[in-house]
Specification:
The chain is of the alpha/beta class. Helix content is about 30%, strand content about 15%. InterPro entries: FAD/NAD-bd_sf, Flavin_mOase, Flavin_mOase-like, FMO-like.
């Protein structure tokens, strides 16, 4: 088919690649001068939504890389510039540039009897072209949410995080920062270092995870399939709507569970022997720098954030407030960035969680009756849910009204919104890649979406809404990247067959108890990489640890969020 792809950022690039793999003809429009989307910094871009100067990924490159171009350097965290270079290498490696029309903005999409008429503008000239299918990959960062009625009377400078590049414009000023997301955490830290006074105003507490755990391992290496099934399946009475290795068969699930117990015990015994050997042999010296590129000593849990009692205490208290009712399975979005915590501990940043009341001139009043003077306000308030392009739109602006957050139920599989899902812990690029693989196979006629799409969408939306109940405004969020991707992989045909796992204990242990690795979706199925993907999967040994052992180091983050069955 002839397919139009809108946007050449991380989601658009992998969509082009997966469509080309299936033999489709692809034309991509991007309003920028090069690939990369928000990661591209091309001169005077102060009014565009772009990654700021010192941004560093909150997910390691093992999970931010695509499965068909895995990162060979382990679980390092890339800077903004490094990640842009990775995207550019991906586009060059697979010859994607020939399918992209740069400096070309899509202004309209019309549904026709033959398909879709896409209108674009380039250098002030509009033109239209017909397509069989459309993939919208322009991302959610389209319309910054700026309108806060509580700040309508503020007369000082107001800046949205979309325009933030660095903290220099706030040096020596009194700054109010409203809202906190992962980028917001960096902004709080940077502004707190240069402003004369900084206040962080929040209405609720997101769940905090540092980028590094146990001094030298990335926290995202603790994403384990067994743990996710423990949280969202075994520890709750709510049935998981997504199919995995055992499908809907209770017998197959029981067999799988029995094997996992046996291999878990063997793995645990192996771990005990390994730890004994480690005590009897000199420890291997760690490298001079950690995964963030900072000096290894003193040990850090995040950028400039030492692993000390004061920082841990504040994180633990914050997380208690994020789940006041207590929960083993999290129901609020994560912030995988605690680099702002030392600023609060030191007093550089003051937190007000009462909520805004009103503003008069440069005075901002809070709901707790306090007030303060500010020169500037920085809004970390996210983006409006505006997914409409011509005739294409999403019901209620809720991306959960699409199948698996991407496939439109009213267009016979020919319209996809790719990259509009954000797992609590995990990378968007691999989610976009799997969505694109599914979409490309549908267009090839090799995969048919379920007949009862409406029912399935409603069932999965209700499940997601339950597990994200404490973050109801964030409809793009998903509690488990593992469950989500495995379900897509099963339909695509690239999920490892259960029989293959049962007959290979080493592979079973790696896939079930090892750190989650997207290369598991390139071992079998369409466009597989076979032995190369298997080698990448085994590059991170399980080291004899069961999932329970792997999670023990994280329990100090969860003092008020323990499920009763795990509290002994």
């Amino acid at each position: 088919m002839k397919v139009c792809v809108v946007g050449a950022g991380p989601s658009g690039l992998t969509t082009i690649k997966q469509l080309l793999d299936e033999g489709h003809e692809v034309v991509c429009h991007d309003k920028n001068s090069d690939v990369g989307g928000i990661w591209l910094r091309d001169g005077d871009d102060g009014t565009k939504t772009k990654a700021f100067d010192n941004l560093m990924l909150t997910i390691s490159m093992r999970l931010m890389a695509y499965s068909d171009y895995p990162f060979p350097g382990g679980r390092k965290f890339y800077t903004r510039q490094q990640y842009f270079e990775y995207l550019a290498e991906y586009a060059d490696r697979f010859g994607l540039l020939g399918s992209i029309r740069f400096d070309s903005e899509v202004t309209d999409v019309k549904t026709t009897a033959q398909g879709y008429l896409v209108t674009s503008r380039r250098k002030g000239v509009e033109s239209s072209e017909g397509f069989d299918a459309v993939a919208l990959c322009s991302g959610p960062f389209k319309t910054p949410h700026r309108e806060l009625r509580e700040l309508a009377g503020f007369s000082g400078e107001v800046v949205h995080s979309a325009e933030y590049r660095n903290a220099e414009r706030f040096r020596g000023k009194r700054v109010l920062i409203v809202g906190l997301a992962e980028s917001g955490a960096d902004i709080v830290r940077e502004i707190g270092d240069v402003a004369s006074a900084t206040t962080l105003a929040i209405r609720s507490y997101s769940f905090l995870l540092p980028r590094i755990i146990d001094d030298h391992r990335s926290t995202d290496s603790e994403t384990v399939r067994a743990h996710h099934h423990e949280m969202y399946d075994r520890a709750t009475d709510r049935p998981v709507p997504y199919q995995t290795f055992w499908g809907r068969s209770r017998l197959a699930k029981a067999v799988f569970g029995g094997v996992s117990v046996i291999l878990g015990l063997v793995s645990s015994l192996g771990g005990d022997l390994q730890r004994l050997r480690e005590r009897l042999t000199p420890a291997r010296p760690l490298g001079p720098v950690n995964l963030l590129g900072e000096p290894m000593v003193p040990y850090k849990m995040d950028l400039g954030t030492e692993e000390n009692a004061a920082n841990w205490a504040l994180i633990s208290d914050w997380n208690r407030k994020s789940h006041p009712e207590g929960s083993w399975s999290k129901r609020r979005i994560f912030c995988k960035n605690v680099s702002f915590i030392p600023s609060i501990v030191s007093g550089k940043v003051v937190v007000n969680d009462a909520g805004l009341a009103r503003a008069e001139g440069t005075t901002v009043h809070f709901q707790d009756g306090t007030s303060a003077e500010y020169d500037a306000v920085v809004l970390c308030t996210g983006y409006a849910r505006d997914f409409t392009v011509g005739d294409l739109s999403v019901a209620d602006g809720n991306i959960r009204n699409l199948y698996r957050h991407f496939l439109h139920p009213d267009h016979d599989g020919k319209v996809a919104f790719i990259g509009f899902v954000r797992p609590f812990s995990g990378g968007i690029p691999i989610c976009a890649e799997m969505q694109a693989r599914y979409f490309a196979r549908v267009l090839s006629g090799k995969l048919r979406p379920p007949e009862n799409l409406g029912e399935i969408i409603a069932e999965e939306r209700a499940w997601e809404e339950y597990w994200t109940a404490l973050s109801p405004r964030h409809t793009e969020s998903h509690p488990s990247q593992v469950l989500y991707l495995d379900a897509l992989a099963r339909e695509i045909g690239c999920l490892l067959p259960m029989r293959k796992l049962l007959l290979n204990p080493k592979l079973f242990t790696q896939v079930w108890f090892g750190s989650f690795n997207p290369s598991s979706y390139r071992i079998v199925g369409p466009h597989s990489l076979g032995k190369a993907a298997l080698a990448d999967l085994y590059a991170e040994p399980v080291e004899g640890r069961t999932v329970m052992c792997r999670q023990m180091s994280l329990l100090r983050l969860l003092p008020a969020a323990m499920h009763p069955k795990h509290s002994e």
